[in-house]
Request: fold
Amino acid sequence: MVQLNENYLKLPGSYLFSTIGKKVAAYSAAHPDAKVIRLGIGDVTQPLVPAIISALHEAVEEMGHAETFHGYAPDLGYAFLRETIAEKDYQARGCEISADEIFISDGAKSDCGNIQEIFSADARIAVCDPVYPVYVDSNVMAGRTGEYDEKTQTWSNVIYMPCTAENGFVPQLPEKTPDLIYLCVPNNPTGTALTREQLAVWVDYANSVGAVILYDAAYEAYIAQEDVPHSIYEIPGARTCAIEFRSFSKNAGFTGVRLGFTVVPKDLKRGGAAAHSLWARRHGTKFNGAPYIVQKAAMVVYSEEGKAQLKEQVAYYMRNAKVIYDGLGEAGYEVYGGINAPYIWLRVPEGMTSWDFFDYLLQKAHVVGTPGSGFGPSGEGYFRLTAFGNYENTVEAIERIKNL
Ligand code: PLP
Reply:
């Protein structure tokens, strides 16, 4: 009899956001009059900008005529988009990345979760703690775990690199040498980022020990500070040790439209094999191309009109970030993030756990956030609020918290 993949049984029972969803649903059912404001899940709320809507309409129209109809897209993405990304996102910043090193996909989550397939089964991974849960979970599914420690809720083959207020949310080089290093910059959930200088330490380290950095830059569009790089390829040496993930979800509101891309430089080789060839093979085998309509709409991100409209959209969310950051600061909370990312990370009051604070905010202010412990053991004692709500709700949520 066939057995199921038991590695899946090692995963925590339910995904963080479904636990939150259930708690909020139960609370709302018991308190139907409570106007609950959700600043929990990192999903956007503003509609697609007009330039994207008109590009979508045009592409849909093309699909309605035999001469301009498009069937399967090329597995790795349309050349028009790959070339534009290479030029505008990379070459314009002085990064040596070519169009054939860009792989278009349906979003960064799939790629972050799937990339581990091209590495050996015994690869040891290192993750920032706290961090986006997909990195650890996808490796647990693949069996890269070792022993589980109930007390710390960690796996022995996963190196957790604490990022807390005490170290300025900057991961320290680990004692045990990892094979794969996941870095998420700007970071979800802490909302903090690494400077060029701080990132260069990691690039040099990865090259010196032969590790590969898996660099998730899904929030790149929110970077405001000059010394924070927009791509890891701004750092010399990154072509031989780094893979970068990007998403159109947060820079263009594509969470429901779906598009992203991954950059795999041809210079990234291990044991004589090129990661680029393996990822091309994997992508071509298991992915049938992102929709033409969506890739056409993504081109708007690089047009003058689109850039102006999207800049306003990012500014809208970052105004929320400021409302949250300043408001919580005035209320006496210790707050972080919110400058290069749409997330605010706050320390929960003494004596409370992250989940205690979740319940407290839900019950007393009808505001939903995300408990820090859901992002890793070092997230305990912290709490995440997102700037992706609408402005009026964000202002009201912060007023309610201030009045507690
Ligand atoms: N990476 C990080 C760090 C994220 O926070 C998210 C979404 O919340 C993703 C990737 C997923 O992006 P996408 O919508 O492109 O799948």
